[in-house]
Amino acid sequence: MFERGDARTPHRVLRYPMGHPRLEALLSPTMEAIRADPELGERVNDVRFLVTLRGSAALVTITYNRPIGEEWKAAAEALAESFAARNLGRVNFVGRSRKVKVVAGDDVIEEELEVPGPEGRSRRVRYAQMEGAFTQPNAAVCEKMLEWAVDATAGSEGEDLCELYCGNGCFTLALAPNFRRVLATEMSAASVRLARRNVEANQADNVRVVRLSAEDFVQAYAGTREFR
User: Fold this and answer.
1) CA proximity to 102, closest of 127, 74, 128
2) Which of 5, 137, 141, 185 is 20 to 30 A from 191 via CA?
3) Residue numbering of the annotated binding site
4) What number is the average pLDDT over the span 69-92?
5) Whole-prediction pTM value?
6) Binding site for S-adenosyl-L-methionine: what residues are annotated?
């Protein structure tokens, strides 16, 4: 995004009032700190934020057009400590450059989403969200989508569900109580690990997550090819 009438000058976004308050609170301090520190600010490509609907953890990813290493990690850890001292909460930083990923803190944060439960009561589903893996970008909208999906599949307890490309198990875990058994597939190895972690965290004993493409699943279902 560039300044109006100027295709060369990027438009600086220093506030995001329509976003989550946690994101709004972190945006300016993070950008100011990056600009003030040569190790953090040299040849930055972009900065990405991931916050949760509930809780105070945040994940900030900074990508670079240069190599990064231990010096970058030390600078990012110092920034995280300064944010904690300023009551900005726990902030994890991930630095990325070509074929390199450096983590200061953790590259996973925990989210909780409310979905409809038995007898009209809501229940909370826990999700680990990993840097770089697909997650729903708007948690409040995601809760509405999950609510619709749970209501739409009510009364399916005697049936089985197959979900293709399940990501971190967002819909999988919300829908699992409505079905007898659930098979969730995903191609990304990182997403498979994350989905299995979330299945275990939510004690969803009727869910199995496997690494298969849609084409692989069709072949397995039709019995034309066997998979391990």
Assistant:
1) 74
2) 141
3) 136, 165, 186
4) 96
5) 0.86
6) 136, 165, 186
